[in-house]
Structures are given as structure tokens and as C-alpha cells.
Amino acid sequence: MLERSIGEFSRFAVIALGTAIFGFSTGKWAWALVLGLGVYLFWVLAQQHRFNRWLANGRRGPAPTVFGIWGEIADDFYRLQRRHRREKQKLHATLRRVQDSTSALREGIVALEDDGNLAWWNPAAGQLLRLRPEDAGQPLVNFVREPGFVSYVHSREPGAQGPLTMPAPGNDSRMLQLELTRYGRDEALVIVRDITRLHNLEQMRRDFVANVSHELRTPLTVIAGYLETLDGSGQAPQTWTRPMAQMREQTARMTALVNDLLLLARLETSERETGREKVSVNELMERVAQEARSFSGGRHEISVDCRRESILIGDATELHSAFANLVLNAVKYSPAGGPVELRWWEDGRGGHFSVRDSGIGIDPIHIPRLTERFYRVDAGRSRDSGGTGLGLAIVKHVLLRHGAEMTVDSSPGRGSTFTLHFPARRLVATSPA
């Protein structure tokens, strides 16, 4: 900047010196001064005019050859233009590589602008959602009209709900999984996956389990009937007493397993968010506690803490199954004389049911897998207690159908606390008991 000022001052000094010499030789100082300033001003305006004309023409080509201060400005401007052009080319190359890489993906990717309008999508998304180039700029919900997807897109926190599974537009035999992630101000990214094969395999598994479980009920009923007849007739040989007792025990265990499998299959295949019964939490807890006392045979101290008359909206049978599974598990894994505490409370987030035991506890590495079918922390101990390994899986599906969730607080040797959290919309306002 200092060099430019010195250069411009030198040019002005040359013109001033020429003006002084001309004025001294002619004796007309005023005219000489006007002429000198006019020449300088005309020269500066001419350089500015050339530079402005280059700007007005869209800055095509190199900057014009101008002199003086405008020449230096033109040189700086041209250097900035070249740097901007290089950065723009680099950005275009990066964008082209990103588009090429996303085009090769099997998963569909859809970029949404304000109000969920289509900004860009890769070929896989166009094929899965049947999008065409002329659809750009229109809302995605105009082409994917599934009600569940519409509410999913318009929700404030779609990520909290997890991925959405739905049939493909125009092709019910193809199943898609869509996951929406918001970023920026009003922008979003939708990942679309074809899960038809996984969905069909899962459906085959469910059908197989349900059919086999249903077919097993008849032979188990026949076996149990004959065992009961033989036991009641008193005609069985004395040496059959122990084998028949073991057969009755194993038949009862198989029957419980079949019943749990059928219940789990029904929970998985039926619609979610069903059941609009008004269930008294107090009565439900007392009934479950009484069942637990009968199961315990007086070996445990089972207490109930429910300080207000609470009403829960849902399916009474399913809620009873979830509560009972947690309480009976607490009795099974607690030592004789150990306390089992049932508690219900409400706050601004909803209603909460907890079961606290004094059992052996659970290592934290097992907690994420507790709701898997047939998963056992201690296989030998679980078999001795007569469990089927499906109790917590049933609890999980009951909670999914009621919009609730479960948390587990446990550590080895310190017992466990299982807590069910029900949303506030599932509660009916009542007065304190």
C-alpha cells in the first residue's frame, strides 16, 4: 500500500513539475495549473473507464492493461480472480467425486432443502423411490405418500424414532428402510435401503416359530392329559413315580415355552400402538405382587409402593405380562429372605414402574443383550430356575407397542433395578390416593 502511494505521488510530482516549467516559461501560472490538473484527471478517468468496462463485460479474460493506481487495482483483482477460479475448479472436482461415489452406492441418498423439497438424489434412490429428473424442487412427500413416512419427515426429532420400514412406492412386494438426518438450518439427508430379503427372512422366521409353537400345543396337551390320568388313577407302578414327576415337570416347561413363543409371535405380528383400555396401575401391581408371593412361597419380602391412583392406557393383558415377567425374574434371582421392591411414580416425563431385587446382579456387558430371545447371562442357573429365556423379549415388545422403554441398573453382587418408562400421553390424570 505504501509503494502504491509513493508511485502515485511520483506521477503527480512529475505532472506538477511539468506544469511549473510551463507556467514559468509562459508566465501564465493559472492556465498552466488548470491544464496540468486536467491532463492528470483525464488520464486517471481513462484508466478507470477501461477497468470499469472490463468489469461490466463479466470479467472475461485477463484484466486490461491500465496504469497508475487503477493498474495496480486491476492486477490485484485479476490475481483474486485466478485464485477464486482455482478454488472453484477444486470444489467442482470434489463435488463430482462425491456424486460419482454416491452414484456407485447400492443405498439410496436423497438431499432435501427447505420444507422437504428434493434437491438431489443418486440413481439408487431414484430407482427405489421412482424419482425422475423433473421432480427436483418438489416435496418428497408428494411421491412417497405413506402416512407413516409423512409424519416421520415432519417430526422434529426423526432420529429418536429410529429408521422407518415401509413398502416401496408402487411396489408393495419390496420393503424399504428410510432414515432421515437433519443438518444445517432446514436441510436433511434421507438414506434409503432395500431390506426386502431381510424382511422376508424375518417373516419366514416368525411364521415358522408361530406354526411350530401352535402345532406343539396339541401333543403337549395330550401328554399332560395322560400323565394326569395315570397319576390320578393310582395304577402306575411305584417305580414310575419319579419318571412321571420329571415328565410332568418337563411337559409344564415345554408348555410355558410354547405359550411364550405364541405370545411373542402375536406381539411381533400385530399392529403397534394398539389397546386403549384404562388399566389401574394400583390393582395391576397388587395382582402381580400376589402372584409373586405365591410363586415365592413366603421366601421373599415383596413390597408395593404406589402412592397415587394411576390409570395407564394400553392393553391390560400385555401390561400384566410385562410387569409379571419382571417381578417373577426378580423373585427367581433373589436369595431366600431377600427383598423385592415394586414402585410406581409419575413426573413430567410420564409414569415409571421399577422392580428392585437383591439378587446376584448383572455384569454391564450383558445388559444390551438382555432382551434378545433365549439370551442367558448364566445358562445353568436359568435352566434351574425354569425360565424360558423369552421373558425380557416379551417385555421389550410390549413396551414397543405402548411407546415405552426400559432401563437397567445393575452390577454383580448388588442386585438389579429394572425400570419401565411410559410416556405422559399414556397416563390419565387422577388425584393422589
Automatic annotation (TrEMBL):
<dbReference type="InterPro" id="IPR000014">
    <property type="entry name" value="PAS"/>
</dbReference>
<dbReference type="InterPro" id="IPR035965">
    <property type="entry name" value="PAS-like_dom_sf"/>
</dbReference>
<keyword id="KW-0418">Kinase</keyword>
<dbReference type="InterPro" id="IPR003661">
    <property type="entry name" value="HisK_dim/P_dom"/>
</dbReference>
<dbReference type="InterPro" id="IPR014310">
    <property type="entry name" value="Sig_transdc_His_kinase_PhoR"/>
</dbReference>
<keyword id="KW-0547">Nucleotide-binding</keyword>
<keyword id="KW-0902">Two-component regulatory system</keyword>
<dbReference type="InterPro" id="IPR050351">
    <property type="entry name" value="BphY/WalK/GraS-like"/>
</dbReference>
<dbReference type="GO" id="GO:0004721">
    <property type="term" value="F:phosphoprotein phosphatase activity"/>
</dbReference>
<dbReference type="InterPro" id="IPR004358">
    <property type="entry name" value="Sig_transdc_His_kin-like_C"/>
</dbReference>
<dbReference type="InterPro" id="IPR003594">
    <property type="entry name" value="HATPase_dom"/>
</dbReference>
<dbReference type="GO" id="GO:0006817">
    <property type="term" value="P:phosphate ion transport"/>
</dbReference>
<feature type="transmembrane region" description="Helical">
    <location>
        <begin position="12"/>
        <end position="43"/>
    </location>
</feature>
<dbReference type="GO" id="GO:0005524">
    <property type="term" value="F:ATP binding"/>
</dbReference>
<keyword id="KW-0067">ATP-binding</keyword>
<keyword id="KW-0808">Transferase</keyword>
<keyword id="KW-0592">Phosphate transport</keyword>
<keyword id="KW-0813">Transport</keyword>
<dbReference type="InterPro" id="IPR036097">
    <property type="entry name" value="HisK_dim/P_sf"/>
</dbReference>
<dbReference type="InterPro" id="IPR005467">
    <property type="entry name" value="His_kinase_dom"/>
</dbReference>
<dbReference type="Pfam" id="PF02518">
    <property type="entry name" value="HATPase_c"/>
</dbReference>
<dbReference type="Pfam" id="PF11808">
    <property type="entry name" value="PhoR"/>
</dbReference>
<dbReference type="GO" id="GO:0005886">
    <property type="term" value="C:plasma membrane"/>
</dbReference>
<keyword id="KW-0597">Phosphoprotein</keyword>
<feature type="domain" description="Histidine kinase">
    <location>
        <begin position="211"/>
        <end position="426"/>
    </location>
</feature>
<comment type="function">
    <text>Member of the two-component regulatory system PhoR/PhoB involved in the phosphate regulon genes expression. PhoR may function as a membrane-associated protein kinase that phosphorylates PhoB in response to environmental signals.</text>
</comment>
<keyword id="KW-1133">Transmembrane helix</keyword>
<dbReference type="InterPro" id="IPR021766">
    <property type="entry name" value="PhoR_N"/>
</dbReference>
<dbReference type="GO" id="GO:0000155">
    <property type="term" value="F:phosphorelay sensor kinase activity"/>
</dbReference>
<keyword id="KW-0472">Membrane</keyword>
<keyword id="KW-1003">Cell membrane</keyword>
<dbReference type="GO" id="GO:0016036">
    <property type="term" value="P:cellular response to phosphate starvation"/>
</dbReference>
<dbReference type="Pfam" id="PF00512">
    <property type="entry name" value="HisKA"/>
</dbReference>
<dbReference type="InterPro" id="IPR036890">
    <property type="entry name" value="HATPase_C_sf"/>
</dbReference>
<keyword id="KW-0812">Transmembrane</keyword>
<protein>
    <recommendedName>
        <fullName>Phosphate regulon sensor protein PhoR</fullName>
        <ecNumber>2.7.13.3</ecNumber>
    </recommendedName>
</protein>
